[in-house]
Every structure is written in structure tokens, then in C-alpha cells.
């Protein structure tokens, strides 16, 4: 068979506005399997085998169609994720470990088992996840730390979240449970809340951006988790984008994305790198999705806890009218540009961020903002740019916000054009 070469470039490809493109985001492995848009730091040795396999030649369009037609609903394996997004350190330190730092590791009211907390922990550093799926009603993801383990288990109408560090378990009922004819599904803020940590989910988001602003190439082959894979290379054509390239390793046999790597245009380590270190597409054992709280574990009723929170804090939450009034006051959210250089903007109310020169309560906050934000000027006036390796934000002294995966000059140009 002829060796696949990186010659299939699809500059100007229509982004899949064809039926195949519309299906390109349908990945059969449920998105509830795992999740976080997290990722990377040179994990190539952990994923790549020795040498590149010889595979039949394939075009980028056909490879994307292969991903779209993939109907894998059963798998188990280990996913390695790490993040190097260049986020600034916040005063007081970041999120705690698996032991429930915010409640002293005692579990508190079950906060240490709440999935939302894990999102913050997975936003940086390296982590290992064990994942399993058997259709839309059974998923499990375990985040393995050196000292503890955190697991989310969805089995039919039941959802368990367990933090071994605090020995706390949270039990919830899946949406639609008890409703005739309705399929149970994991809620958005549980397994779905830990979303975008598998290569499938991240590849889906990348393919959504493919269009006339994108170059898509089949760039050779690789061995990932012991399986033969094609490498799909996605590059923005727009110079102002902070994204250098996205590389997706696609299983040659079944079309499942096995590895996702996003490298910033500035170079260095990947900002997002997620990949299977091992994967098995056989049906997982039924016991994989069974969960019984360990002896002595504190068990929290997640449904009651949520209802209690709504009762206690519901009156403090903004009403729909309040939200609409706030959007009107801010001028609403607007998106400038298209593709990789889209910039979201929210019009300010005339009051900007505090400065380090300010006296009183705002002084300390202003000094901190001065330390992480770069002062910029333009015909729009002045403001600060806050930067990470991928996303930059400009907040003008009038309070208007411009944010996107674009360079600093693109934000200044957008502010100048909108003044």
C-alpha cells in the first residue's frame, strides 16, 4: 500500500457545509465520558510509538468524513491531559487538591465532590484520567492524583461523584429520570460539566472552526496508544490568530480521534495536548459502572443540596429582567470578525478597572491588575491587555471589554475601529 504523505491540503475547503461536515461533530462516544478543555506539555514520548505506520493515502475531506461516520459507543482506556495555558497566579493561591482544599479537606457540605471544582483543578498541570463508556446511559471518568482519586459515574438514572481525599460522595438523579419514554442522560453540570477532556470532544470543537479561514492537511501517520493513526493538521490562515496549529491523530480503523494537540503561534510547549495512552474498544464490564460508597464515606444528596442552594440563594440571583437590563446597560455582547480571529466585545458603562495609583480598597486590586496587565493606548483611549498563551483581553479605561484568541494588536485595532 502506498505510504500516506502530507500532500492533501484543503485551503479554501468549504468548512464542511456539506452533509458530511454537519455530521463531523457527531462522535458516538458520549461527551459525558470525560471532560475539560485542558491539555499538554510535550507528551509525545508517552503517546507515539516507534516509527510511523504505512497506511493507504487519504484526503483531508475523506479523513474528516471517516471521523463523522465513526459510531463507536463503547470504549475504556487511559487519557493523559495537561495544560500550559499561561494563566496568571491569583492572590491567595489557586484551587486546592483533591482533598477539598476549600473546606479543609473535611468534605464540608459535599463541595469537594462537586464536579465544578474539578474544572478549576484541571485547568493547569498534568493529570491522568481513566475513562469508560457503554452507550449514552453508562459513562465513568476517574481523575487519578498522586494522593487521591476523583470519580464520576453515570449509570441509567443515577449519578455518583466521589472524592477519595475527603471520603465524600454525592448522589444525584439524572435528568428525565422517571419520565416515561425519556432516555436518561447525564446533567450538563455533572459528567457533562467535566467536558472536553477526551480527544474526541476537543477535535469536535476544532472541526467546527474549519472553513475558508483554515488550512486542513493530512500530515503523515503515527502510532498512538499502540494503534495506527492518520494525523490531521489544522492551521488558521488568519495572521492575527494566537493558534499556531492543531494536530489530531485519527484512528485509521474506526475514525476515533486518539490524540489532540494545540500549539500556540508563539511556539514552545503545546497549550493543549490530550491523548489516550491506552484504549480498548470492547464493551466494558457492567461492574465498571457500578458504585457503592466506601464504608465511612459521607454521602450527600445532590438533588437536595441543589434545591437547598436555590432556596437559600435564589432571592440573590438576578432575574431574567435584571439580566436583560444589565445587557442593555452594557450594550450587549457583540462578536467582531469571523473564524479564528473573532473578538467578543461588551460595551462598558464608563467605569474602568482600578489603578495601582488609586487609594483605598481599590488600591490593592489596582496594583495586582497593573502587575499582570499591560497598559496600551490607541485612538480609543487607553486600557490594559491581559494575556495568556491563547486568549488575550483588552479592558479599556471606559470599561469596554474585547477578548479573543488573537494578538494584542488585533484587540487594539478592534477598539480603535469601534470608538
CATH class type of the largest domain: Mainly Beta
Please name the fourth-level CATH homologous superfamily of the largest domain. Answer: Lipoprotein localisation LolA/LolB/LppX
The coarse silhouette is globular
Structural class label: alpha+beta
Figure out the total of helices: 9
Count of DSSP E strands? 19
Cα distance spanning the termini: 59 Å
Order of strands in the sheet with most strands = 1-8-9-10-11-12-2-3-4-5-6-7-13
Largest sheet: 13 strands, mixed
Task: Return the CATH topology of the largest domain.
Answer: outer membrane lipoprotein receptor (LolB), chain A
**Average residue-wise pLDDT:** 75
Q: Nearest-angstrom radius of gyration?
A: 23 Å
Work out the helicity level. 10-25%
Weakly predicted, low-confidence segments? 1-50, 92-108, 177-195
Which strand-content bin applies to the residues?
25-35%
Query: So what's the oligomer here?
Result: single chain
How many separate domains? Answer: 2
Order of helices and strands: EHHHEHEEEEEHEEEEEEHHEEHEEEEH
Amino acid at each position: 500500500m502506498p505510504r500516506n504523505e502530507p500532500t492533501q491540503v484543503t485551503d479554501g475547503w468549504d468548512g464542511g457545509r456539506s452533509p458530511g461536515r454537519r455530521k463531523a461533530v457527531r462522535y458516538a462516544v458520549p461527551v459525558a465520558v470525560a471532560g475539560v478543555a485542558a491539555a499538554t506539555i510535550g507528551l509525545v514520548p508517552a503517546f507515539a510509538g516507534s516509527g510511523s505506520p504505512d497506511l493507504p493515502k487519504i484526503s483531508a475531506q475523506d479523513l474528516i468524513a471517516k471521523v463523522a461516520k465513526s459510531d463507536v459507543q463503547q470504549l475504556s482506556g487511559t487519557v493523559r491531559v495537561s495544560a500550559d495555558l499561561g494563566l496568571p497566579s491569583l492572590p491567595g493561591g489557586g484551587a486546592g487538591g483533591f482533598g477539598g482544599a476549600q473546606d479543609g479537606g473535611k468534605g464540608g457540605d459535599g463541595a469537594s465532590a462537586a464536579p465544578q471544582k474539578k474544572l478549576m483543578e484541571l485547568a493547569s498541570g498534568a493529570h491522568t484520567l481513566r475513562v469508560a463508556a457503554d452507550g449514552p446511559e453508562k459513562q465513568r471518568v476517574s481523575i487519578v492524583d498522586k494522593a487521591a482519586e476523583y470519580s464520576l459515574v453515570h449509570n441509567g438514572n443515577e449519578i455518583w461523584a466521589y472524592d477519595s481525599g475527603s471520603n465524600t460522595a454525592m448522589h444525584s438523579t439524572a435528568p428525565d429520570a422517571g419520565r416515561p419514554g425519556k432516555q436518561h442522560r447525564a446533567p450538563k453540570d455533572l459528567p457533562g460539566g467535566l467536558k472536553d477532556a477526551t480527544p474526541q470532544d476537543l477535535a469536535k470543537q476544532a472541526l467546527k472552526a474549519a472553513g475558508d479561514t483554515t488550512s486542513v492537511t493530512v500530515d503523515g501517520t503515527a502510532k498512538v496508544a499502540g494503534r495506527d493513526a492518520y494525523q490531521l493538521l489544522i492551521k488558521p490562515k488568519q495572521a492575527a490568530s494566537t493558534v499556531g496549529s492543531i494536530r489530531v491523530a485519527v484512528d485509521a480503523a474506526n475514525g476515533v480521534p486518539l490524540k489532540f494537540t494545540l500549539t500556540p503561534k508563539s511556539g514552545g510547549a503545546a497549550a493543549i495536548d490530550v491523548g489516550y495512552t491506552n484504549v480498548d474498544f470492547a464493551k466494558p464490564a457492567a461492574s465498571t459502572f457500578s458504585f457503592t460508597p466506601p464504608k465511612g464515606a459521607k454521602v450527600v444528596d445532590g438533588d437536595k443540596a441543589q434545591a437547598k442552594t436555590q432556596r437559600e440563594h435564589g432571592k440573590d440571583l438576578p432575574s431574567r429582567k435584571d439580566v436583560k437590563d444589565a445587557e442593555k446597560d452594557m450594550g450587549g455582547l457583540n462578536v467582531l470578525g469571523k473564524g479564528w480571529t473573532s473578538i467578543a466585545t461588551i460595551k462598558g458603562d464608563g467605569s474602568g478597572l482600578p489603578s495601582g495609583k488609586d487609594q483605598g480598597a481599590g488600591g490593592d486590586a489596582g496594583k495586582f491588575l497593573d502587575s499582570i496587565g499591560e497598559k496600551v493606548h490607541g485612538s480609543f483611549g487607553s486600557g490594559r491587555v491581559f494575556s495568556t498563551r491563547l486568549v488575550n483581553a483588552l479592558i479599556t479605561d471606559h470599561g469596554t471589554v474585547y477578548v479573543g484568541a488573537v494578538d494584542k494588536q488585533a484587540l487594539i485595532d478592534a477598539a480603535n475601529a469601534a470608538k
